[in-house]
Design brief:
Number of strands: 26
Strand order of the largest sheet: 11-16-15-14-12-13
Distance between the termini: 62 Å
Bound molecules: beta-D-glucopyranose
Oligomer: single chain
Number of helices: 21
Radius of gyration: 27 Å
Length: 732
């Protein structure tokens, strides 16, 4: 570097010095531009920046550009080489569960209870997105804890439990950004974005974009913990949510965006609004005045405006004395800081490698398969119907609407994922491989769930399809039935009033059962959320919930059906018996009375259909007695818990040990039980392992509505997976 090289261009200078230097050189208009995120290219949007000629190269960020690295670099070159200060643009994209290699949706990932797999697949997503698409920043992970499966976006999160969500959030952040700031500076690591901050998942009635009524305590107890974990793991950006918190919309909420995030958690990165979040303040009846929208958002701590272009009024507001330059500078500093930290000034251009070379590498596909194998959950297996021995089967009926539909495995937010046979082989293709000696008879059975409309999936019966399905079922030794949601029935703006199977699928189950007599009927159920179909499920012998597991889905499903793989997924979200039972989730608070609090029109016991943590295996696990003893030394750990787990069956398998804590009396009422940790272990037949948990004071504490933690002496019960428990006392 020569003497004349500005400080901000010198990578040897500390980031803060570079930020200050660059800021001091910027005009008000250049500063305002850094706070805008727009679109470019063929993407259709009123704020589209147009082609290369009309492109605004001083813009801070561009999103959802899918033109590939080469074209992206051409735009970037103008920003870096043809503008006064040469500030690189940060390119954002929704890389949610893969860029080109498709991984299980986040909710399914959580069911693997292997955060290390999420770290690995997020790493692959980052590499593909950066190398192939020039993406510097993904709008992921979505870390919202959700209690209502009617909300279509549960598919994007890690389920209902804050501790599970924390573990997966950390894993995703590390996968995208690396473990250390030094690692993140290297090309191929991309910025993570924790979203949506905060409480969007509490939308009333599960309706997307709706009002949320969140008490301060619920905010701290359920919704904030995954964000805190993500910030601690190093996430450098957040996206503010659409909802409002105690009357103040998230994008303009000083309490969450500044007091909690910055002042308490020490976050120094930046917040981007969600699409249109700033101008939506009008719809929320907060303010229809763009000046107020901008000033309140910026003053609250929301730094960048996504796709809205309301922030173009910044220069005018500053000149009119309505917005302080200090507020603008603070936001610009945060954006620049992240750009410097990630090394964007040093490597503004993405590699220009052919897609075939940078994507779909064998190890990437292997990761997709590994994740799919662990995410699927065996919900029912009467009389050990599964695994099937393919060699003994002469005729297998493949019935149902999803056998030849590859999109059911891909789900919402597919990025640039292809759903053709080459990349996402169908269940039908894989069945041919796995049952080579059997005659396969295929029948669709009922109308396919439509990609576009939920209503079409309610389509009336198709008599001809039903009859053909019944005939196929009657002629086969075993019936494999595909059921559940279509690929785009869960996701953004995909709320459902009911989460049952469509009537035509229920009719199909009935017709097939009748024709099959005593022969096994096995269901493979797809979905991006829990579905409630307990009555229809009674006549099924086995149910494998295959979620939307990406490129490895069909292979993993067949491996599990045939016993090549022992299922090990466990539910990260409760399955209700019926939609009216919602909300029902693992860490619900105590009722004042038991028994009489139950729904009178649910004939079974009032618990959920399948609780959090549920999932069957082909082997059996036996728990020994649980012991809880005071920790050897004073410190964070208060107690040590130990339990032995044995594989007492005949097949190697994996068990997830869930540690549940019940606080028997406290000054603020407590959940019946809450998850404080989990651990998945692998056991050979006959093998026993001891699983130890260090029960920390933090785990024993509860949180108050102001965010403070309280550790109260008293009695607790610790349980290992609900199989064994121990009572212990924390003395004053
Ligand atoms: C969604 C975000 C997403 C953004 C950009 C919004 O509508 O709520 O989750 O990141 O669009 O695509």
């Amino acid at each position: 570097m020569t003497q004349e090289t500005p400080i901000y261009k010198d990578p040897k200078q500390p980031v803060e010095a570079r930020v200050r230097d660059l800021l001091s050189r910027m005009t008000l208009e250049e500063k305002a531009d850094q706070l805008l995120q727009g679109l470019i290219g063929k993407d259709v949007n009123p704020n589209n920046l147009g082609g290369e000629n009309s492109f605004r190269p001083t813009i801070g960020s561009i999103l959802s550009y899918s033109g590939g690295s080469k074209a992206r670099n051409a735009f970037q070159r103008i920003a870096v080489e043809n503008t006064r200060l040469g500030i690189p643009i940060i390119w954002g994209y929704d890389v949610i569960h893969g860029w080109r290699t498709c991984f299980p949706v986040s909710l399914a990932q959580a069911c693997s209870f292997r955060p290390e797999l999420t770290e690995k697949l997020s790493r692959v997503s980052a590499l593909e997105a950066w190398t192939d698409g020039g993406v510097d920043w993904t709008f992921s992970p979505m870390v919202e804890v959700a209690h209502d499966p009617r909300w279509g976006r549960v598919v994007e999160g890690y389920g209902e439990d804050p501790v599970t969500a924390q573990a997966f959030t950390t894993a995703a952040v590390v996968g995208y950004q690396g473990k250390t700031p030094e690692e993140w500076k290297q090309p191929g690591y991309i910025a993570a974005c924790l979203k949506h901050f905060v409480g969007y998942s509490a939308s009333e009635g599960g309706r997307d974009y709706h009002y949320t009524d969140i008490s301060p305590r619920a905010l701290w107890e359920y919704y904030l913990p995954p964000f805190e974990a993500g910030v601690a793991a190093g996430a450098r950006t957040l996206m503010s949510s659409f909802n409002d918190i105690c009357g103040t919309p998230a994008v303009a909420n000083h309490y969450t965006e500044t007091e909690i995030l910055r002042n308490q958690w020490g976050f120094t990165g930046f917040i981007v609004s969600d699409w249109g979040g700033v101008s939506q303040l009008k719809a929320q009846r907060y303010s229809s005045d763009p000046a107020v929208q901008t000033v309140h958002s910026l003053e609250a701590g929301n730094d960048m405006d996504m796709a809205d272009f309301v922030f173009t009024n910044i220069p005018e507001l500053v000149k009119a004395g309505k917005l302080s330059i200090a507020t603008v500078d603070l936001a610009v500093e945060r954006v620049l800081r992240v750009k410097f930290e990630m090394g964007l000034f040093e490597h503004p251009y993405a590699p220009e490698v052919p897609t075939e070379e940078s994507c779909w590498k064998p190890e990437y596909l292997e990761t997709a398969l590994a994740a799919a194998r662990e995410a699927m959950v065996l919900l029912k297996n009467e009389k050990q119907t599964l695994p099937l021995a393919p060699s003994g089967l002469k005729r297998v009926a493949l019935i149902g609407p999803h056998w030849k539909n590859n999109l059911v495995h891909i789900g919402w937010w597919g990025a640039l994922v292809k759903d053709d046979e080459k990349h996402a082989p169908s269940l039908f293709t894989k069945a041919q491989e796995f049952f080579p000696d059997a005659e396969l008879v295929y029948e669709q059975g009922c109308p396919a769930p439509s990609v576009k409309s939920n209503l079409e999936t309610l389509a009336a019966r198709d008599e001809a399809l039903l009859q053909a399905a019944a005939a196929a079922a009657a002629s086969a030794d075993v019936i494999l039935l595909t059921l559940g949601e279509g690929g785009h029935q869960s996701g953004e703006y995909k709320s459902r009033r009911d989460i049952a199977l469509p009537p035509c699928q229920e009719e199909l189950i009935a017709a097939v059962r009748k024709a099959a007599g005593d022969k096994p009927v096995i269901a493979l159920v797809s979905g991006g959320r829990p579905l409630a179909f307990q009555d229809a499920a009674r006549s099924l012998d086995a149910i494998l919930y295959i979620w939307q597991c990406g490129y490895g889905a069909s292979q993993a499903a067949m491996e599990i059906l045939t016993g090549k793989v022992n299922p090990s997924g466990r539910l990260a979200m409760t399955f209700p018996r019926t939609v009216g039972q919602i909300p029902v989730y693992v860490n619900q608070h105590h009722p004042a009375r038991f028994g009489l609090n139950e729904y009178q029109d649910i004939p079974e016991e009032n618990g959920p259909w399948f609780p959090f943590g549920y999932g069957l295996s082909y082997t059996e696990f036996t728990y020994g007695d649980l012991s809880v003893t005071p920790a050897a030394s004073e410190g964070a750990a208060a107690f040590t818990a130990k339990v032995t787990v044995s594989n007492t069956g005949k097949m190697a398998g994996s068990e997830t040990v869930f540690w549940y804590l019940s606080d028997l009396e406290a000054s603020l009422t407590q959940p019946l039980k809450r998850v404080i940790a989990f651990r998945k272990i692998d056991l050979q037949p006959g093998e026993t392992r001891e699983v130890t948990l260090s029960v920390t004071r933090d785990m024993l504490s509860y949180v108050r509505g102001d965010g403070s933690k309280v550790l109260e002496p008293g009695d607790f019960i610790l349980s290992a997976s609900g199989k064994t428990e121990a009572k212990f006392t924390l003395n004053a």
